TrEMBL record:
<protein>
    <recommendedName>
        <fullName>methionyl-tRNA formyltransferase</fullName>
        <ecNumber>2.1.2.9</ecNumber>
    </recommendedName>
</protein>
<dbReference type="InterPro" id="IPR041711">
    <property type="entry name" value="Met-tRNA-FMT_N"/>
</dbReference>
<dbReference type="InterPro" id="IPR036477">
    <property type="entry name" value="Formyl_transf_N_sf"/>
</dbReference>
<dbReference type="InterPro" id="IPR002376">
    <property type="entry name" value="Formyl_transf_N"/>
</dbReference>
<feature type="domain" description="Formyl transferase N-terminal">
    <location>
        <begin position="32"/>
        <end position="216"/>
    </location>
</feature>
<keyword id="KW-0808">Transferase</keyword>
<feature type="region of interest" description="Disordered">
    <location>
        <begin position="474"/>
        <end position="498"/>
    </location>
</feature>
<dbReference type="GO" id="GO:0004479">
    <property type="term" value="F:methionyl-tRNA formyltransferase activity"/>
</dbReference>
<dbReference type="Pfam" id="PF00551">
    <property type="entry name" value="Formyl_trans_N"/>
</dbReference>
């Protein structure tokens, strides 16, 4: 009964010093829990706590549920989706409240609550609430803390190709996320991650385990002070699992993948395979396509779906017609790297923010390097906008702008008329693999086969130097594109004409 529960604060042992063991059992006073959750992972913990509440009321006396407000989703943000745990709380008949304005400001907890449990909640529980609760707070975190601290441990465990993972039960720190005392943890080396796991499958694997560990920790009295830290210390610098933002779903044509960026570790997989793996974990990826017409240039946002990696030309997943076409192009490039061919290409635009460095190994064309240096000088205020075109130093200071870089790269594509897919080679690193893209969505319009989009937005170029499919390191693979062939003893007019042709790779800085 709610009215009976509300009278509990009068009987609580608030005045008892926490350091004195005055409890009747090692489990302490019956728990009156405020459960903060949101997704499917937290639903398992709530169901397990409710079952324990029914089986053992002396341990868990009551459970109140707090959720974050529903947010608009979908195209145009027209659909309002409720968090999954709200419906679970109603099914279980538990008191349910919503955090107003998605913040704890001016929100007050019921006085009879003596333990806060937050599982995949996404909001920091303030110290005023933790101090009000007799036993503070607990959290179920799907990682082997302190490794992969942050709101997206499952994402980064998969993106980084972890072989093992686990679950940790920790206290809620009043200072920052995921820095509390680890009370219980999956024994090392952890739980093996099955091959080809997805977020859904890994959640289904760890959520029941986390729920069981939470109930077991409460039954064992781990929430009672003093708390004992049982966490391990990784032999490498602690890695973090920050929120997966929109920029993380951008296709990294020229820069390391999100997994490499998050851990500062080199990826052993081919670059195109990293992109396919990124799609496997995060879903549809986006990029920008540069569409050129005689009158103007447009940048269209393209969402790519149905992405996979083809190991080599002998793969059974590669249509024979496409394999023959790629092999033929490879032979032509080997015979004459300067051959003039009409090649269908897509020009992609990768955007980086001020927190991402321009790849140091990216070799701009000689004619673009001068322009790049001028733009950088213009940003620093070294030259004026009027003198920039002439390359004359000036004194006019330019207004500061948000640092952003853009790299443009063209990739030859090979369409498959039967499936509507397109196949791309790695434009920088070469190698044997191919990236298959099955579907594309341009500027929010209906999804179409990638081959149809490429035929409409792609174009053909002559003397496409990026057609080099060398399997050598980047320096050698790009040598014909950055300087004349070594066998050319003289710099004749034809060589100059070819070397000064429209840039295949261009670099911008805005």
């Amino acid at each position: 009964m709610r009215w009976l529960a509300s009278s509990r604060p009068l009987r609580r042992s608030v005045a008892r010093p926490r350091s004195i063991a005055t409890y009747s059992t090692q489990r302490g006073n019956p728990l009156r829990i405020l459960f903060c959750g949101s997704d499917e992972f937290s639903c398992h913990s709530l169901k397990a706590l409710h079952k324990k509440h029914k089986d053992d009321p002396s341990l868990i006396e009551s459970i109140d549920v707090l959720v974050r407000p529903s947010k608009p989703t979908g195209r145009g943000l027209k659909q309002v989706t409720e968090v999954p745990i709200a419906s679970v709380a109603r099914e279980l008949g538990l008191p349910l409240s919503t955090l107003p304005h998605d913040t704890f400001t001016n929100w007050f907890m019921k006085k009879y609550i003596n333990l806060i449990i937050a599982v995949s909640f996404g909001r920091f529980v303030p110290p005023r609430l933790l101090n009000q609760a007799e036993y503070g707070g607990l959290n179920v975190h799907p990682s082997l803390l302190p490794d992969l601290r942050g709101p997206a441990p499952l994402h980064y465990a998969l993106l980084n190709r972890y072989t093992h993972t686990g679950v940790s039960i920790q206290t809620l720190s009043p200072h920052s996320f995921d820095t509390g005392t680890v009370l219980s943890q999956t024994p090392l080396p952890g739980i093996p991650i099955p091959p080809n796991s997805t977020l859904t499958s890994l959640t289904s694997l760890l959520a029941p385990l986390g729920a069981s560990m939470l109930v077991s920790s409460l039954s064992s009295g781990f929430h009672l002070p003093p708390h004992k830290d049982v966490s391990w210390q990784p032999p490498y610098p602690i890695r973090h699992a920050p929120k997966v933002r929109t920029v993380a779903r951008q296709i990294p044509w020229l820069t390391p993948s999100i997994s490499t960026l998050s851990t500062n570790l080199p990826s052993s997989a081919p670059h195109l395979e990293d992109i396919a793996h990124q799609h496997h974990i995060l879903g549809p990826l986006w990029s920008k396509l540069v569409v050129r017409t005689p009158k103007k240039e447009q940048n269209k946002r393209v969402v790519c779906d149905d992405i996979s990696y083809i190991l080599d030309l002998t793969s059974p997943d590669l249509p024979p017609a496409v394999a023959n076409e790629v092999a033929s192009a490879l032979e032509r490039c080997k015979e004459d790297p300067w051959a003039e061919e009409q090649v269908p290409v897509l020009e992609w635009l990768q955007i980086g923010d001020d927190e991402q460095q321009v790849p140091e190994w990216y070799p701009p064309q000689p004619e673009s390097l001068e322009m790049f240096e001028r733009v950088v000088a213009l940003e620093r205020g070294d030259i004026s906008s009027v003198d920039a075109a002439a390359g004359v130093e000036g004194v006019q200071q330019q207004p500061k702008r948000k640092k952003e870089w853009r790299l443009s790269i063209q990739t030859a594509y090979f369409p498959d008329s039967e499936t509507g897919s397109i196949y791309l080679r790695d434009p920088i690193r070469g190698g044997k693999g191919l990236l298959r893209i099955g579907k594309m969505t341009v500027d929010g319009k209906p999804t179409r086969p990638a081959a149809n989009v490429a035929a409409q937005l792609g174009r053909t170029v002559t003397d496409y130097r990026g057609m080099h499919f060398d399997e050598e390191p980047i320096g050698k693979a790009l040598q014909p594109a950055t300087r004349r062939p070594e066998e050319d003893a003289e710099v004749d007019e034809e060589t100059k004409r070819r070397s000064n042709r429209a840039m295949v790779r261009r670099i911008y800085s805005y």
